[in-house]
């Protein structure tokens, strides 16, 4: 068993990688392929559903601003992913990023949650695909299955959805053929989806009515909408019918419409030039997705009053019925083509990164190594792909994954948060070659900036040398260091930890008091103000610390502000999830931690590397 100190070290050991080393996967993806993959995985059925749903229930015409706010928040996370894609061009996405910077245990937690995210995402999209096809044939598939194979088990689907299973297995077989073939399919379908979006914006522009953005209260006084015998609030009219809080609530919902770009980060070992392609592709994909959402939501709310779109949600995607409202029912079938292609690319985007995360974790030895087996001909992680497909297909067949959809958000938001924290750690941390340790004399030389050095030995008294120095370092780098040393790294790490806990405390207070500062009582408002001042002070101190001089092809601008803003948004959205979601998350984590502490902690490559004796042969095993 690990002694206490060694146990903690085992949890915090970091992965050492050689960026220049070759990969067993096939490097064949261009910047165009990665951008199409990011757009395809993000711009799915949501483009035809999300705008109408948010407009009718929470934002009204201000849904356009909701999408803008959500896009900015997504870009914060996207920029952090882009920098890590340039720094650590390896398969595994946020898992590998956190392994390099934060440590093995947190990397496993993130990787395990990414597996959950992608499995549920694949199952959810497969069910959505099946339901959409069923709606095109007037529900005949669903009626037949409910009549002949009903399932009356609580928490499960009302019938086994074999169509969803068939769709998932078909995609699994496609992914085993080869990554280039899969991305070619994705690029074609993404192109069709974008053409349909352009058609919607252009065709809808001929039927807009600017009055729909300025509906008066009198027009709504005698208008009521009921869904399932429950009356629905239609707001007060105007551009902000549900007020500022409604627009912000809509932005929180719209944020999930941008989830999916992180699939690009999982292609680090399959991109031809990952250091440049991954950052460019992430930024471009988020830009295209925002323009699509902004254009569709703007046209949709100008063609049909926002409150009328509430009734269309129960019929399926609201967008086709908006065109029926203006007398163009033919557009329904054109939009259906776009919806099916969008679902196809979303399904590929949900499943594509799953075997690559499993492959990366298995290669590192933190989960079972047989999952890292590569097909020699196609150069794809075939075992991980097949197991992923069977697992996701089984869930899509028997589970009502709508109840589990929020669990997918936890994995995504945790990954976003850890990547933002990792960017801060790497930016302000000491590079390994900055410390020269003389083991024989037990003397450590640490650069202090300006050519000065401090020497510490067992016989020296640290208080005599470092107390004033430490104090000045904490106070906004009064020592004027130009690059990190051991002390500045420790100060920066402490500040990052403090900022993280203060952000969690701030979000907790805001959520507890309805997240609206305008409605807070004076006492809670003073608490919020105090926490905010402490956060600002910690951020200013962190900003003043010396930074790594290592240059990469892409760096997050305005550090530490952009990563901190990304963390705040992620914490806020996580706190908006239901307690039942956190309970399910805890159950999933129980099984994951059981695997890690009985297998991964003992079999990881980093443990083997740490425990090897000098001069012994060492090799990372490949199954």
CATH class of the largest domain: Mainly Alpha
Number of helices: 24
Oligomer: single chain
SSE sequence, one letter per element: HHHHHHHHHHEEHHHHHHHHEEEHHHHHH
How does the major sheet shape up? 3 strands, antiparallel
CATH topology of the largest domain: Amino acid/polyamine transporter I
Shape verdict: globular
Whole-number average pLDDT?
Answer: 78
Biggest sheet, strands in spatial order? 3-4-5
Examine the secondary-structure arrangement and name the CATH architecture of the largest domain: Up-down Bundle
Radius of gyration: 26 Å
Subcellular location: Membrane
Membrane topology: Multi-pass membrane protein
InterPro entries: AA/rel_permease1, CAT_C
GO biological process, one term: L-arginine import across plasma membrane
What this model shows, in words?
With 623 residues, the protein is mainly α. It folds into two domains: 29-218 and 231-428, Amino acid/polyamine transporter I; 432-547, no CATH class. Helix content is 64%, strand content 3%. It is built from 24 helices and five strands. It has helices spanning 4-12, 31-42, 46-59, 63-87, 94-101, 104-136, 140-148, 162-177, 179-205, 217-221, 243-255, 274-303, 310-313, 318-325, 331-351, 353-364, 382-398, 405-428, 462-474, 486-512, 522-544, 561-575, 579-603, 605-611, and strands spanning 225-227, 230-232, 436-438, 443-449, 452-456. It has a three-stranded antiparallel sheet with strand order 3-4-5, with no helix packed on it. A two-stranded antiparallel ribbon has the order 1-2.
């Amino acid at each position: 068993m690990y002694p206490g100190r060694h146990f903690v070290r085992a949890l915090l050991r970091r992965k050492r990688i050689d960026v220049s080393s070759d990969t067993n996967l096939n490097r064949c993806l261009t910047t165009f392929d990665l951008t199409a993959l990011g757009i395809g995985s993000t711009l799915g059925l949501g483009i035809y559903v999300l705008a109408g749903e948010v407009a009718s229930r929470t934002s009204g015409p201000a849904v356009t601003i909701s999408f803008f706010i959500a896009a900015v928040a997504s870009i914060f996370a996207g920029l952090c992913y882009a920098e890590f894609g340039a720094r650590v061009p390896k398969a595994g996405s946020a898992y590998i990023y956190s392994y390099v910077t934060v440590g093995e245990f947190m990397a496993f937690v993130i990787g395990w949650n990414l597996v959950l995210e992608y499995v549920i995402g694949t199952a959810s999209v497969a069910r959505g695909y099946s339901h959409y096809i069923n709606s095109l044939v007037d529900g005949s598939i669903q009626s037949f299955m409910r009549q002949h194979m009903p399932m009356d088990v609580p928490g499960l689907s009302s019938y086994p959805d074999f169509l969803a299973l068939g769709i998932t297995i078909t995609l699994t077989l496609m992914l085993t053929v080869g990554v280039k073939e899969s991305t070619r399919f994705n690029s074609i379908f993404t192109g069709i989806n974008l053409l349909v979006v352009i058609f919607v914006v252009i065709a809808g522009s001929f039927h807009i009515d600017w009055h729909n953005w300025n509906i008066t209260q009198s027009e709504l006084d005698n208008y009521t909408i009921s869904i399932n015998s429950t009356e629905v609030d239609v707001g007060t009219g105007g551009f902000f019918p549900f007020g500022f809080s409604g627009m912000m609530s809509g932005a929180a919902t719209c944020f999930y419409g941008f989830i999916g770009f992180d699939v690009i980060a999982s292609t680090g070992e399959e991109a031809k030039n990952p250091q440049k392609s991954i950052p460019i592709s992430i930024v471009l994909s988020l830009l295209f997705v925002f323009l699509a959402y902004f254009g569709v939501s703007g046209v949709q709310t100008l063609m049909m009053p926002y409150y009328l779109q509430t009734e269309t949600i129960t019929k399926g995607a609201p967008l086709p019925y908006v065109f029926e409202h203006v007398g163009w029912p033919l557009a329904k079938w054109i939009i259906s083509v776009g919806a099916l292609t969008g679902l196809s690319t979303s399904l590929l985007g949900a499943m594509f990164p799953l075997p690559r995360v499993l492959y990366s974790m298995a290669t590192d030895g933190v989960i079972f190594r047989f999952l890292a087996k590569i097909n020699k001909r196609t150069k794809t992680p075939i075992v991980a792909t097949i197991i992923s497909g069977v697992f996701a297909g089984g869930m899509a067949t028997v589970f009502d994954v709508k109840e589990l959809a929020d669990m997918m958000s936890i994995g995504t938001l945790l990954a976003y948060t850890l990547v933002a924290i990792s960017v801060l750690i790497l930016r302000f941390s000491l590079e390994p070659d900055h410390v020269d340790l003389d083991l024989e004399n037990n003397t450590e030389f640490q650069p202090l900036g300006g050519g000065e050095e401090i020497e510490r030995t067992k016989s020296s008294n640290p208080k005599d040398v470092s107390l004033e120095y430490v104090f000045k370092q904490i106070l906004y780098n009064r020592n004027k260091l130009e690059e990190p040393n051991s002390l500045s790294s420790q100060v920066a790490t402490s500040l990052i930890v403090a900022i993280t806990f203060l952000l969690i405390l701030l979000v907790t207070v805001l959520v507890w008091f309805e997240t609206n500062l305008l409605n807070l009582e004076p006492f809670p408002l003073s608490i919020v103000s105090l926490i905010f001042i402490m956060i600002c002070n910690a951020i200013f101190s962190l900003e003043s610390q010396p930074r790594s001089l290592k240059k990469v092809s892409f760096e997050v601008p305005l550090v530490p502000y952009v990563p901190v803003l990304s963390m705040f948004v992620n914490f806020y959205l996580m706190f908006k999830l239901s307690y039942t979601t956190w309970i399910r998350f805890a159950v999933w984590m129980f099984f994951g931690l059981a695997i890690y502490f009985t297998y991964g902690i003992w079999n990881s490559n980093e443990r083997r590397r740490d425990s090897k004796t000098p001069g012994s042969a060492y090799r990372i095993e490949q199954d």
